[in-house]
Amino acid sequence: MASKPSIPKGTRDFSPTEVAKRHYIMQIIRSNFEKFGFQPIETPSFENSDTLMGKYGEEGDRLIFKILNSGDYLAKANAAHLENKDSIKLTSSISEKALRYDLTVPFARYVVQHQNEIEFPFKRYQIQPVWRADRPQKGRFREFFQCDADVVGSASLWQEVELVQLYDTVFTALGLKGVTVKINNRKILSGIAEVIGASDKLIDFTVALDKLDKIGEDGVKKEMIEKGISQDAIQKVQPLFHFTGTISEKIEKLSQLLASSDEGTKGVAELRFICENSAKLGLSTAILDLDVTLARGLNYYTGAIFEVAPPQSVAMGSIGGGGRYDDLTGIFGLKNMSGVGISFGLDRIYLVLEELQLFPETVTATTQALFINYGDAEALYAMQAMQLLRQAGIKVELYPDNAKMAKQFQHADRRGIPYAVIAAETEIATKSFALKNLATGAQIVVDFECLKAVLLQN
Amino acid sequence: MASKPSIPKGTRDFSPTEVAKRHYIMQIIRSNFEKFGFQPIETPSFENSDTLMGKYGEEGDRLIFKILNSGDYLAKANAAHLENKDSIKLTSSISEKALRYDLTVPFARYVVQHQNEIEFPFKRYQIQPVWRADRPQKGRFREFFQCDADVVGSASLWQEVELVQLYDTVFTALGLKGVTVKINNRKILSGIAEVIGASDKLIDFTVALDKLDKIGEDGVKKEMIEKGISQDAIQKVQPLFHFTGTISEKIEKLSQLLASSDEGTKGVAELRFICENSAKLGLSTAILDLDVTLARGLNYYTGAIFEVAPPQSVAMGSIGGGGRYDDLTGIFGLKNMSGVGISFGLDRIYLVLEELQLFPETVTATTQALFINYGDAEALYAMQAMQLLRQAGIKVELYPDNAKMAKQFQHADRRGIPYAVIAAETEIATKSFALKNLATGAQIVVDFECLKAVLLQN
């Protein structure tokens, strides 16, 4: 191979620094998931195709990565589709497996498959990569991690209250203050559709309403009319154009607006329960806000909907989202399993922490001291000390070769290693070590216990 | 979907207990890799096919999972191969990507691709899944994790000494005492081949010699002759049939036996360096042993070869292996990069720890206390306490629904949660909590600080 090797578009190599930062975020998410009683599961990277296909719509089916059958796959290929060169139809006869597209469908499959071993309500979390054949662009990759926490088997709204707490706890632990947890409810959206008398126009309506800040009330109304929403309907939901105030005030407005809709009224009650109890418990650093334009995954969710926006100083889309779904496992034949869950967007959280310089320095702390190599006898003396230092939890390395001093010190410098340990003839004779601070140049001669103490403190 | 869903053969779902145990092993491996100065990298799950194909031999090429191109893949399919229904030849025109087969080739690709950003010698570790279309059987899966540590850019034998230390350190930390780190050297095998005058018979020779314990000296010799190794050759290496004693004694025997081979003599010197320095440093719980029949990956390694056997009480194959390779990155155009590395076999280590009951109980520790749900007012009181307990790092849960007491307690029992916290009208009135030990049935009434203290201690 003559040309320099590369990786597929939309995928990434992660350097040591990047891995350390990503693990830092995952570890905080993981430990807080567990504090809230979520238990980890892991599912295979690929599923049987019929587990995934048809679960994400036509677009999703197209974006699922299919794995070619092993061996003589053409022997079982559908002859007619092969003849017609019909790629789409041929696929199912030459590919039986596919890479998972999200963690939700595999979770539903897991719950149904293992229903007899699971104690419900089942609180699970899952932190694993997913793959999508999307067109790669800034912040969108073909391989990326999802971090999901879901509860199935209980309709209790206390779960929603806890999930708001969980968002607040994780982002507080990450030092990311001032995120906004936006909340809405699918039933409120249904109520609005009912009131405007146009269920099929609901998405057009929320998309237009969402532009209020940008194009003003007149602009929004103009767009709504262009989309076929009547003047009369717009008049009925006029309060949504001045939808300000505290959450309580907003809920009050909605309550009046949706009084004629049973579904809408139910949504208001759910929202009130979640918001009132969240207020009583309090949030550390996050802000809870009601956003009636929030409409993610309309077909999927049936109750509360969540989305998390980063602090306003950062120009970035949502860094988390989720909601309540009444029938997740129904697709695999297990009915009446209400569930609710949230997800953390690892890649975007990474970018936000990077932009705001919120990664603690210790996260990328590498080897603490490099032992300089003066030859085999000295290296053995160094290794004996290193063995004990490592037992004390200290990260140390020996420069592997007896290279020129300048080269060895340069290596420590380029690696960002803070200390060099010099143990040559003189030091060995006195059972000591010269410890050099590579930032200041200061050098002290110490015995082993002192060496250990200094490295433990730094 | 009517039938119960399933997963592809050779893949696995991991339950919460299994995930916890696997993470425990990985965490110990990871933290010790870092103590030894290895830095983590991660590479994409799939690589361009030409990065992987042809690197693992014909058998390997067959076992690599290929990903079908997205969209109208048949439009670019090779017409002749399609016409002839030649599955093998057609593959490259309908599949450009493939799942990684191991971590070594992607690592070599990473080093070459990022050579200008890397400071050499480069000590990297990588813990990620790999995929092989192997026939699944006990202990062999189509998706499994590899845990690799390698150093590239230095020929120093101190690396080999450190890798022996690393094996000892990790297995000691896992509580797995008495593993045998078997060592050999590719140059010694070359020397033996030279001495017996039959390089092409080397594998037959080592395979036969390895059966010494089972079929005895006569049996081994009979097999060697059947394989076409001459009486004369067998006579020349007669000492290998009584190859016992300490490592030093074995090295002495080899030194004499291979005196006529430059390559063999070099191998003996390398082996002596590694073994003597390992002896001077000492091993905590592992045993280092020289095994001249050890011949893993003959074509791949060029110096030391390692393999780790579990304690003799466990019937299980090797739980780790590795060695020195002089030209890993040459396949991607970067010459003269000597490397050496070892791998830990996660799945087998898991089975060994399970069999010997070496997983600490705390590994699978789940939620510490379940708060019983007596209704919304009581739940809010519980949640307020839980919020503070979680801030103190304690894992607690609220039973989500106001279900019958028996059902709630049964849930705690089935989940293995050790405590229930009862906070009903009486407790709320006195700002207290009844804490029930579910194993003993003992119940005490305490204030919040005491509740926290007890849970922190348990």
UniProtKB/TrEMBL annotation, chains A, B:
EC numbers: 6.1.1.21
Gene3D superfamilies listed in its UniProt record: Anticodon-binding domain, Bira Bifunctional Protein, Domain 2
GO biological process, one term: histidyl-tRNA aminoacylation
Residue span(s) of domain Aminoacyl-transfer RNA synthetases class-II family profile: 1-400
Locations listed in the record: Cytoplasm
CDD domains: HisRS-like_core (cd00773), HisRS_anticodon (cd00859)
InterPro entries per UniProt: aa-tRNA-synth_II (IPR006195), aa-tRNA-synth_II/BPL/LPL (IPR045864), Anticodon-bd (IPR004154), Anticodon-bd_dom_sf (IPR036621), His-tRNA-ligase (IPR015807), HisRS-like_core (IPR041715), HisRS/HisZ (IPR004516), HisRS_anticodon (IPR033656)
Listed GO CC annotations: cytoplasm
UniProt main location, coarse: cytoplasm
Keyword Ligase annotated: yes
Residues annotated as binding L-histidine: D102, L103, T104, R132, Q146, D150, R296, Y300, Y301
Keywords, alphabetical: Aminoacyl-tRNA synthetase, ATP-binding, Cytoplasm, Ligase, Nucleotide-binding, Protein biosynthesis
Gene Ontology molecular function: ATP binding; histidine-tRNA ligase activity
Reactions accelerated catalytically: tRNA(His) + L-histidine + ATP = L-histidyl-tRNA(His) + AMP + diphosphate + H(+)
HAMAP family assigned: His_tRNA_synth
Assembly and binders: Homodimer.
Family from the record: Belongs to the class-II aminoacyl-tRNA synthetase family.
UniProt name for this protein: Histidine--tRNA ligase
Protein's organism: Flavobacterium crassostreae
